[in-house]
Amino acid sequence: MPQQNRGQEMAIHQKEHQDNETRFERGLRALGEIDGHGGQQVVDSLADIAPDFSRYLIEFPFGDIYSRPGLDLRSREIATIAALTALGNARPQLKVHVQAGLNVGLSRDEIVETIMQMAVYAGFPAALNGLFAAKEVFDVAEPS
What does the buried/exposed string (b/e) look like for 52-90 if buried means 16 or more CB atoms within 10 Å of the residue's CB? Predict the structure, then answer.
């Protein structure tokens, strides 16, 4: 399928989705599928300090971006784990998304390889920190 037609098809699909669900509803659904309790804990922890921000967190990343049809959830979590590893300053969010990766079917090996790949682009310290964060999640997660 030509790229332009694929883009138009995706836009139509997104519009149909938006007509049936609000961004917030779509975001809550996606959050539950991806992060389970971990994502909801983050949202709940913002309730007393920044309730509007918790709504934005549901609507934009989960309601608008994660809900798009162009990538499956496994691919989105690989990208997110890579980005958070490369940032090097988002350990709590990285741990949530390592767990989310497991939730959407990534293997521990796939997560480790994704983080190791970041040594090339973000440096060894970022990759090491990412691996240690993943290890913490793996140590408390059910064996895969």
Answer: eebbebbbebbbeebbeeeeebeebbbebbbebbbebeb
Q: 8-22, 29-43, 76-90, 126-140 — which is least confidently predicted?
A: 8-22
Taking only the tens place, the pLDDT of each residue in 82-100 is 999 999 999 999 999 999 9
> What residues have CB less than 8 Å from 115, skipping those under 6 apart?
81, 82, 85, 127, 130, 131, 134
Sign for the pseudo-dihedral over CA of 39, 71, 125, 133: positive
CB contact at 8 A, 30 and 62: yes
Helix (H) or strand (E) segment spanning residue 88? none
